[in-house]
Design a protein that fits this description.
Strand content: under 5%
Largest sheet: none
Number of domains: 1
Helix content: over 70%
Oligomer: single chain
Distance between the termini: 36 Å
Structural class: mainly alpha
Shape: globular
Mean pLDDT: 86
Order of helices and strands: HHHHHHHHHHHH
Low-confidence stretches: 3-19
């Protein structure tokens, strides 16, 4: 996802003055490619298993790698030094995010799901008003309104059918992601990034597995390589995003999250034989432009607040 698939916790580390922007951008493009491939595997699994079961497999498959990474970066004590209530809430939101996203993948092309999910940064901006006390000027309100109009172009829900439910699912997923991102801004003041990544996966995987247990379907032997790929690619993508934001300025690196749309279009064409129509491209363009404008405005505000 990023904007869907990059985990919000990965935006916490600040870039140092001597960061190499070119390398950071390459890391971000690589990370988004890895996560887009992971989402393609999730879409393939969603054709055989319920969305809640696939969500459990997503969290649990990456958990061993996240645990090893967290121990290496911060040690066992750092892993346990967290704000438990917010970590648990974020994990539950992760379940909602994954179930909605995977449900949308089962109903719509990957590129359409990605394009609609790009509304998440706009929702983050809206949620920051009541939860973080941030103020939004008329220019950012205009960008948000345009982005929401772009979502309507992408989804164009009819009165009945999969497009309606798929659209609602991806919007619900984007809302859960956005609320989780706001929580990360709060958690980032006290909790380390590796611990946030680990506990997000741990809670998400465990809660989803419990909910999926009554209707759990036996896993076909042929699907184990896909599940292993989800675990490896998901964790490699998280690490690459972390390094990208550590080595480069967020305002430079973050816009390259939108390369996910290009990856998704390529996979839709090569694997599923579908391509976005003109209205989907137009809507995606409006959403991306709105998101990029909001990123620019945040950078302007951040520079204005510097002493």
């Amino acid at each position: 996802m990023r904007t869907r698939h990059p985990d919000p916790a990965d935006t916490a580390p600040a870039a140092s003055p001597d960061s190499h922007s070119g390398r950071a951008v390459l890391l971000m493009v690589l990370a988004i490619g890895l996560l887009a491939c992971m989402d393609g595997m999730l879409k393939a699994l969603s054709a055989h298993y319920p969305a809640i079961q696939v969500s459990a497999l997503r969290g649990l498959s990456s958990l061993p790698f996240a645990f090893a990474w967290a121990l290496w970066r911060i040690g066992a004590r750092g892993l346990l030094r967290v704000r438990w209530s917010l970590q648990l809430l974020r994990g539950v939101l992760g379940v909602g995010m994954m179930v909605g996203f995977i449900s949308a993948l089962a109903a719509m092309p990957l590129s359409t799901v990605y394009a609609a999910f790009f509304v998440a940064p706009l929702i983050v901006t809206l949620l920051a008003i009541p939860l973080l006390g941030e103020r939004i000027g008329p220019r950012r309100w205009t960008a948000i309104a345009m982005g929401l109009a772009g979502v309507l172009l992408v989804l164009r829900p009819d009165a009945v059918g999969l497009s309606l439910w798929g659209g609602l699912a991806v919007l619900g997923s984007a809302f859960c992601y956005a609320l989780s991102a706001v929580l990360v801004r709060i958690l980032g003041r006290t909790d380390a990034t590796p611990s946030m990544v680990f506990w997000m996966l741990a809670v998400m995987g465990t809660v989803a597995a419990v909910l999926a247990a009554p209707a759990w379907r036996p896993i076909d032997t042929a699907h184990w390589p896909l599940i292993a790929g989800v675990g490896v690619l998901g964790m490699l993508g998280q690490v690459a995003i972390t390094e990208a934001f550590r080595q480069g300025e967020a305002s430079v690196v973050a816009p390259f999250e939108y390369t996910a749309l290009l990856y998704s279009v390529a996979m839709d064409a090569m694997i599923w034989g579908v391509l976005p129509d003109r209205l989907t491209w137009a809507g995606a363009g409006v959403i991306v432009a709105s998101g990029l404008y909001l990123l620019r405005r945040e950078r302007v505000h951040a520079e204005a607040e510097k002493p």
